[in-house]
Design brief:
Elements (H helix, E strand, L loop, with lengths): L16 E6 L4 H8 L5 E5 L7 H13 L5 E5 L5 H8 L5 E4 L5 H11 L21 H7 L5 E6 L2 H5 L1 H5 L6 E4 L1 H7 L9 H17 L2 E5 L3 H8 L5 E6 H23 L1
Parallel strand pairs: 1-2, 1-8, 2-3, 3-4, 4-5, 5-6, 6-7, 7-8
Helix pairs in contact: 1-2, 3-4
Length: about 260
């Protein structure tokens, strides 16, 4: 874990923040990973069956783990109700998928800020300690919240500069899988056009003074994508770690059995 501030203070970090991705809908998974020393844990609601109730328990579990690991929730969509209900759970940051225009980014900020700057509704929820710290919550929420938006298409990359300039957007996140898919170059990580799009997104973030992040799911990808110059990296996915570890144990065990034979 870095010694600098977390996701809400990512501009202060001198080294990239390193996180991991949680797709398994279980508080124990969240607690285990949050206790390992990652800077942040990313919880996915876009491509998983995780409900709001389960997400709330996963965030509680992550907060209960040793250390000061931040929590980032990738929401299912940019609907104002989705954003409001997710923020009411009290994560450190949100990541909104499939953002392609500055107008969409502006709507996300508007839906996630309290009046008079925005139109987010106020409730007696976990984020405000169920109303016990309501006034403090309203006054300080912007200091402890980060908003990231995901670039997953050529159109998104083309508009990255304008998206990054939107007040209230703290960073961009390159979704490499969907970006390559949208380009007709699925999984071609060394493709020149793909890398040019990545470079363009990184440059847009730098010019706007906001953070840039991405995902890596292998040792090779982690090395390559840190070389992109990102400020935060999701360095793996829980289900893949589970499958890889279990496969390695199986292969090793079968090798021992064959050796004994």
């Amino acid at each position: 874990m870095t010694e600098d501030g977390g996701l809400a203070r990512i501009a202060e970090a001198t080294d990239p923040l390193i996180g991991t991705w949680v797709t398994i809908p279980a508080p124990a998974t969240a607690e285990l990973l949050a206790g390992l020393g990652y800077d942040f844990v990313s919880f996915d609601q876009e491509h998983t069956p995780v409900s709001y109730e389960t997400m709330e328990d996963m965030l509680r579990a992550a907060d209960a783990a040793p250390g000061t690991t931040d929590s980032l929730v990738r929401v299912a969509d940019d609907d104002p109700t989705t954003l409001k209900r997710t923020l009411d759970l009290g994560p450190t940051a949100i990541l909104v998928p499939m953002v392609e225009t500055p107008e969409q980014a502006e709507e996300i900020v508007d839906a996630s800020r309290y009046p008079p700057e925005g139109r987010r509704g106020l409730g007696l929820t976990r984020a405000s300690e169920y109303g016990r710290s309501l006034s403090d919550h309203v006054e300080t929420v912007e200091d402890g919240l980060a908003r990231f938006v995901q670039l997953e298409s050529e159109r998104a990359v083309e508009n990255a500069g304008d998206i990054a300039e939107v007040d209230g957007i703290d960073g961009l996140f390159v979704g490499p899988v969907d970006l390559s898919l949208s380009m007709g170059r699925f999984g071609e990580w060394d493709d020149e056009a793909f890398l040019e799009h990545v470079e363009s997104a990184v440059g847009a973030a730098r010019d706007a003074g906001v953070a840039i992040g991405t995902l890596a799911t292998s040792a090779e990808q982690r090395e390559e994508r840190l070389d992109w110059g990102v400020d935060f990296l999701v360095a793996g996915v829980d289900a893949m770690h589970l499958a890889e570890g279990a496969s390695a144990a199986l292969d090793h065990s079968e090798g021992l059995v064959r050796r004994e034979e």
